[in-house]
Write a structure and sequence with these properties.
It is elongated, with a radius of gyration of 52 Å. By secondary structure, the chain is mainly beta.
Length: about 650
């Protein structure tokens, strides 16, 4: 018994002695736990796992969880603090953990396992994306299913931001995009994603495809112009990609016929009959894969053409207060509008509408030129379609013993055919002889010819000079200017002193006071009277009522410019310039027109046209705006 105990004691002692070094070493080797682990990126087949370095560690063991075996398996050993895990399944859940180790005397000493990190690989790229249908506001798409993907996101390119905008999500392998603009090409791409623990893992985008919507219904179709044989249509724009087709109804065939197509939002249909109505409709199309895809037809629009232009306009019976206007009948016209020039408006106004081919215009002033034109119209579905206006006809009422018709002309009227002027019924002319002081360079270049022609054709005439006088000396020189040019001639209707400031010369060089302006007139007129000439003053109504209202001028004849239907000057006057827009055969363009009253009365004999509504008389200087007179300003005078 004692012998056995001794042997056991010896064995235990030897074992204890052998184990002492190992216990000593184990106590000295310590490996810390990996404190942080994460996934830096994923693809459809790879995951990159990273972790925080453990001080003193020789390396790391990376483990991946096997969900089938329900246990972790060693994937790899690495001395780095990251690893790419490859050849994984797409859109699949994976779980990883890591532990560090140290090596001493050929033996590994391990730390504790890190916490687990769970991640999913991305889905595969979406393949075979294509458009399967479209409307004016939708595009239908489909693609191949991506294995294990949770869902899909569709993106549409934004031309403004130059980026793709997310449009919508779907868990299906097809979808229909809504709220799209019609007749527009879109760039579209799709990508799948895997959702895990609230996080989405995206696959790569599909290839970009282009898909196009078809046009919407054309709206806003209207007739914006017409002529004798054409109708112009317009409509609202759908998009720059749309092409529009226009159709006209053929009643004989009971169908709409193609007229043409355009990328614009307007179209002219030609080859139509005068004064006829037509029905049209429009639709748009775009090309998709080489095939035309049409939108809906517009509403039907009714439109018409106009009749032929009135021809043969002529004057019939003429009296001192009426003119009969006649024209040729237009067979397709339903009526005619007659327009007369109204000086108070400085434009043509509608005088009367008639279904006959003549009209007698009454209540006119004697010895006055009037201008007319006529427009034929056809009524189609309650709307009047007007032809182009006829040529303008100008004619004067008969002169009387006290009222005669005249013109005033200058170089601005060019070369005048005075024989035609006389034949047109002009009773007298007032000729500009020049402007400013007595310099030959300031003679009117057509004065000698105009004077010679009036004397040859026995057209009574007077003369006028445009004044630039700023003082009495200037006025005296201007009188000498006239005297030089009239040497050997006797104008029946005297010499007129044109007082105005059409080109602003007086204003720019110091407008004289009203008193000085009156004295300038007196200086000129008295000098002309002393030399045996009848004389008077020309000015606008405004000047006579303001600058030249002094009673010193009452002894001189007055020629009043007021472009209106009546002259409202309250003092005596012998001549009225009623328009600058007269038309007289023999003179190119517009000219000034006048009535001379041979017997002065308190009430001038000129009357308003009965059928017009005259406005208040104009009081501004009629020549203050040369764009209304049609004349150029006189040249800058020599001083």
């Amino acid at each position: 018994m004692k012998k056995i105990s001794y042997k056991i004691i010896i064995a235990i002692a030897l074992l204890f002695i052998a184990l002492i070094p190992n216990f000593s070493n184990a106590a000295k080797v310590s490996v810390k736990k990996v404190s942080k682990i994460w996934v830096s990126y994923t693809t459809s087949s790879k995951v990159k796992v990273k972790w925080k370095k453990v001080k003193g560690a020789k390396g790391y063991k990376v483990y991946v969880y096997n969900y089938s075996k329900k246990k972790y398996e060693l994937y790899a050993t690495t001395s780095n603090t990251n690893i790419k895990v490859k050849k994984l399944k797409s859109a699949t859940k994976y779980k990883f953990r890591v532990r560090a180790y140290k090596k001493k005397k050929g033996k590994n000493y391990y730390g504790k396992y890190s916490s687990s990190v769970v991640v999913a690989t991305a889905p595969e790229q979406v393949k075979k994306l294509k458009a399967t249908g479209q409307s004016d506001s939708t595009i239908s798409l489909k693609w191949d299913k991506v294995k294990r993907a949770t869902s899909y996101k569709v993106y549409v390119y934004n031309n403004s931001t130059k980026k793709y905008d997310f449009k919508q999500s779907t868990s299906n392998k097809s979808t229909t995009l809504t709220g799209m603009n019609s007749a527009k090409t879109y760039k579209i791409k799709v990508r799948a994603y895997k959702k895990l623990n609230g996080k989405k893992y995206y696959g790569t985008y599909s290839q970009v495809i282009e898909a196009k919507t078809i046009p919407s219904k054309v709206t806003g179709v209207k007739e914006y112009d017409y002529s004798l044989n054409s109708i112009s249509l317009s409509w609202d724009k759908i998009s720059s990609e749309a092409t529009y087709r226009i159709y006209k109804y053929n009643s004989g065939k009971n169908e709409y016929e193609y007229q043409g197509e355009t990328k614009d939002t307007y179209f002219k249909v030609s080859g139509l009959n005068p004064a006829s109505d037509y029905n049209f409709k429009v639709r748009a199309y775009v090309k998709i894969n080489g095939e035309k895809k049409y939108g809906a037809y517009s509403n039907i629009i009714n439109a018409g053409t106009c009749p032929n232009e009135v021809t043969g306009l002529k004057i019939g019976k003429v009296t001192s207060n009426s003119l009969e206007v006649k024209w040729n009948k237009i067979k397709e016209a339903n009526g005619y509008d007659i327009y007369i020039y109204k000086d108070s408006h400085q434009s043509f106004v509608l005088y009367k509408t008639t279904s006959s081919t003549s009209i007698n215009i009454t209540g006119l002033s004697a010895a006055k030129f009037y201008k007319f034109y006529v427009k034929a119209y056809s009524t189609i579905n309650g709307k009047k379609y007007y032809a182009d206006k006829s040529s303008t006809l100008s004619h004067k009422t008969n002169s009387t013993n006290t009222e005669i018709a005249g013109i005033d002309v200058s170089a601005h009227n060019g070369k005048i055919d005075w024989e035609k002027v006389k034949k047109a019924g002009v009773d007298f002319a007032i000729l500009r002889c020049g402007f400013g002081k007595d310099y030959k360079s300031q003679d009117d270049k057509y004065f000698e010819r105009n004077l010679s022609e009036c004397e040859r054709l026995q057209i009574p005439y007077g003369v006028y000079i445009y004044s630039y006088a700023l003082n009495k000396n200037d006025a005296s020189s201007e009188a000498d200017h006239v005297l030089r040019l009239l040497k050997g001639h006797t104008p029946k209707y005297g010499v007129w002193f044109d007082m105005e400031d059409a080109d602003g010369y007086k204003r720019k060089n110091g407008m004289p006071s009203n008193n000085t302006l009156v004295n300038i007139c007196v200086e000129f007129c008295d000098k002309m009277i002393k030399n045996g000439y009848k004389t008077g003053i020309y000015a606008s109504l405004s000047w006579f009522n303001n600058q030249l209202k002094d009673s010193k001028l009452d002894k001189y004849e007055k020629w009043v410019a007021q472009w209106n239907d009546r002259c409202s000057y309250t003092k005596d006057y012998i001549m009225w310039q009623y328009t600058s827009s007269g038309l007289v055969d023999g003179i190119n363009g517009r000219t000034d027109m006048n009535i001379m009253y041979l017997k002065i009365t308190d009430e001038p004999t000129s009357q308003n046209i009965e059928d017009l509504k005259p406005q208040e008389p104009k009081t501004e200087d009629p020549k203050s705006d040369t764009s209304s007179t049609g004349e150029k300003n006189p040249a800058e005078p020599q001083t």
